[in-house]
């Protein structure tokens, strides 16, 4: 919860301008949840697949969440990330 704002700011540097507002709002909501519930999360990737379109990646792995000091949850999760190149930058 202490560094979610910093990490959000870092990630938003690489976001396509068309998605910036939506992701910025998402991160604000997540920051509130993390602070309210003393939530800490981490993701350990185990498989990365480039989709046939060449502009999407699926990342599979284990999402670990800890609420406060005692409650821990681990679950297999898959995230799809869309990307594109702009002026030599990967967005």
Describe, in plain words, how this protein is organized in 3D.
It is a single chain. With 91 residues, this protein is of the alpha+beta class. Helix content is 33%, strand content 44%. The chain contains 2 helices and 5 strands, in the order ααβββββ. The protein has helices at 4-12, 17-37, and strands spanning 39-50, 56-67, 71-82, 85-86, 89-90. The strands form 2 sheets. The chain has a 3-stranded antiparallel beta sheet with strand order 1-2-3. The protein has a two-stranded antiparallel sheet with strand order 4-5. Strand 2 (56-67) and strand 3 (71-82) form a beta hairpin. Helix 1 (4-12) packs antiparallel against helix 2 (17-37). The protein is flat. The two termini are 26 Å apart. The model has no long low-confidence stretch (mean pLDDT 90).
Topology:
Elements: H1 4-12, H2 17-37, E1 39-50, E2 56-67, E3 71-82, E4 85-86, E5 89-90
Antiparallel strand pairs: 1-2, 2-3, 4-5
Helix pairs in contact: 1-2
Helix-and-strand structural type: alpha+beta
- Give helix and strand order, one letter per element, not per position: HHEEEEE
- How far apart the termini lie comes to 26 Å
Number of helices: 2
Poorly predicted ranges: none
Query: Helical residue percent?
Result: 25-40%
Q: How many E-type strands? A: 5
The profile of the biggest β sheet is:
3 strands, antiparallel
**Lateral arrangement of strands in the main beta sheet:** 1-2-3
* Overall geometric form: flat
Cα-atom Rg, whole angstroms? 15 Å
> What is the typical, i.e. mean, pLDDT?
90
- Strand content is 35-45%
């Amino acid at each position: 919860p202490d560094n979610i704002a910093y990490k959000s700011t870092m990630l938003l540097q690489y976001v396509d301008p068309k998605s910036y507002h939506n992701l910025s709002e998402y991160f604000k909501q997540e920051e509130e949840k993390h602070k309210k519930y003393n939530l800490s999360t981490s993701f350990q990737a185990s498989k990365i697949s480039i989709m046939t379109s060449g502009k999407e990646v699926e990342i599979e792995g284990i999402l670990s969440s800890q609420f406060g000091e005692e409650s821990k949850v681990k679950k297999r999760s898959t995230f799809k990330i869309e990307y594109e190149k702009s002026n030599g930058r990967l967005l």
